Batch of 4 targets.
Target 1
Amino acid sequence: MKKKKVITKDMTIGEVLSIDENLAEIFLGFGMHCVACPVSQMETIEEASAVHGVDTEFLLKKLNENVK
């Protein structure tokens, strides 16, 4: 049985999307259109959440619920 990867606040958006590209829909649902931005390779989830006014813990919950 393959262990599910846990998404953490210190991961970059690019790292998250490399685990499961379908998680882009979660980011987009939060108004975080940075999934296609070059900054997504450097900006952590925590940093992006702060810039976009998104609750980091709630975003992490949603990402981890939907990771494949």
Note: The mean pLDDT is 91.
Target 2
Amino acid sequence: MKTTIFAGLAAATALGSLLVAGTASAAVPYPHPHNVNQRLRDQHARIRQGIRSGQLTWRETRNLDRRDARVVRQEQRDRFFHNGHLTSGERRQLNHELNRDSRAIYRDKHNDRVR
């Protein structure tokens, strides 16, 4: 009788540790702090490509650059107040703003205005 209780307890402990390990790996927030800067570099490259190809006017370019600068300033403020780190809420907000900026780049590059 004692061995069945012990075996059941061991199985429950093993299952519990697998569940904890699975949720810990799934809880990694996106984007990581270095991914924010990488996304900004990628978006900047998309803007520069739009200038070279004539898809973006100078006004569209100015507005897109201002949007990216706003994200950079927000990231700097967030990092300043948390000793160089971003909270999960701040990462989520930056990701949301980067998604909006990415859609704006796409819309501006694919409208009928050309340089």
Note: The chain has two domains: 1-28, 33-109.
Target 3
Amino acid sequence: MEVVKKVLAYIYRNPEEVLVFNHLLYPEVSPQVICGTVEESEGLEEAVLREIFEESGLRLKNPALLKTASYIRKDLNQLHERNIFELFDVNLPDKWKHVVSSGEEDQGMEFEFYWLSTNEAKLKLVGEMGLYL
């Protein structure tokens, strides 16, 4: 089984709300937090800040690594090493859309960002992402 390093960004504006997004082209997909694959030449902190910028347009600072967890993607026969980061920013809008302008997988996709209560996110986030709240 292939091992793939991933980063996940849990961005909070207060302890009760986490930033999530929906794929506008795929409304059937549950909300998710910003995440992506670590490139060979980058560290974990660099990877999470790059993914945040690519997927949301935000330039944030000071990600804190909370923990690392394993997640099996059976459909791809991959073991994902999830490096979970926490960030705080109270000055973000309630809602916005962003078109991904770089990256291999998501380029050109439009994401809609909004805040979800942490309790609701625990239940709704895709791919067991709610387990880390």
Note: Residues 121 and 130 are 6 Å apart (CA to CA).
Target 4
Amino acid sequence: MTARTVSRGRGWTSRQARYAILAAAVLGLAIEFFGDRGLVQVIEARRELASLERDVARLRDQNRALQRDVQRLTDDPSAIEELARRDLGLIRPGEVVFILRDRPAR
């Protein structure tokens, strides 16, 4: 029997141990990248966070504009009149409205 001969039923060879360590490392990396809290999930969560932050900023801007409109309509009677004329087609007593229609080209 030479020094290289190893009993097959008694334990791991160094090659088997290396393969087992390599397999465990590959499995660990796969879990780290693709697991529930893996790298892929973290990247997706960061993208979603950035998108939501943009949405929040846009909605805050809209909210400020609406607050300005409310303030203007509360404090300025001419703003109410302008809105009524534009959106409801209202006129003042004594005003005459002329409606001009385009004729089709011949």
Note: The helical segments are 14-34, 39-75, 77-88.
